[in-house]
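Listing S7. Sequence submitted for prediction.
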Amino acid sequence: MPLTDAAIRRAKPADKPQKLADGGGLFLLITIAGAKSWRWKYRIAGKEKLLTLGLYPDVSLAQAREAKENARRLLASGVDPSEQRKAATATRAADTVASFEVIAREWLAGRPWVPAYGKKVIAWFEKDVFPYIGARRAGDLKASDFLQVARRMEARAAFESAHRVMQNCGQVMRYAVATDRAERNPVADLRGALVPAPEKNHAAIVDPVQLGGLLRALHAYHGTPVVQAALKLAPMVFVRPGELRKAEWAEVDLDAAVWSIPAARMKMRQAHIVPLARQAVEILRELQPVTGHGQYVFAGGRSDKRPMSEVAVLAALRVMGFDKDTVTGHGFRATARTLLDEVLGFRPDIIEHQLAHAVKDPNGRAYNRTTHLAERTRMMQEWADYLETIRGERPDALLSTSVCKQLIRRQVSALKLDTPPESAHSGSS
């Protein structure tokens, strides 16, 4: 007699498993613990097999009968329902492994980024990418799929972020190609399709007269010794604000006049050396009695176990009357890049090395942290001398003797080589 829903509901577990038959090989198995599951018994090639169709009541009596009929039709066509299910499960597993989100998380896990930036990129993916294309096979994605992701970001005016996210998506797709989970990178087809990101640079002062006024203000600032030292050093060493703020005494060798920043604290996870000019060493020696007993050079005001606040330098600049459109902590890097090139005449690649930017040799290999160290050391001292000069009270004292010599040599070299002065960078004194 076929089963009824009422009979199924009344059925209770016993001291051994029970089978309630519905007909045609379909039955309900009731375990000792009371779980009820649908099974279908069939034969193929003379062998008896069982196919599980689901748990009751998640799968109703009517649904179990329909599933049995579907399986019976497969069997009639010569397909083993159990093997077909295994194949479907394997396909779903393969689809999951090849999904864009799985591939993206693999790629993200291998990025040599500082933790803060890594979290930002993951947040972009989780908010703007995964909800829309994360579950799909990377190999099935088209350029239009990525364009839709970018358009959603552009709709909220996140133009710069859209460019960054698409750049990262392109890197994920290249990784998918490299790991045989996609044939090509469709993000490359978006060239020219995104709304251009507006020009956005960190505010910086590049006029020597204005810079001299800023430096005088920095040296006259009456704050804590830690913030005073940070303000004086920031334009002199022109590292990223986070690298300066988290500087540790263990990284600094004042006798050798060198600050060695480990890879773990650098944006691109490459160790970096900052030669310390005489003036920088003097500032640090003055600060050493204040924070030298602890870990951080610029220790926090509330605890020397933490570095100073990330807004400490910015807050001091604002107190002195410099708004965000005039100067920022990060802007000192642009100041140095411009004036070291245009005024002091140092080669752009030397400057880029000291900015800890990616610089490669003619064979495409990245230089290591000690490349051109002697030249960078000389550059950092001349830069500190230059800053000291323009900080002087005389507004016409903008160029030291060494700077004038450099400019003259650049002009002489240009005349000899018959090349424009701007292409004849020499860093010689």
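Caption to Listing S7: primary sequence and predicted structure tokens for the chain studied. Residues 46 and 80 are 12 Å apart (CA to CA). The mean pLDDT is 83.
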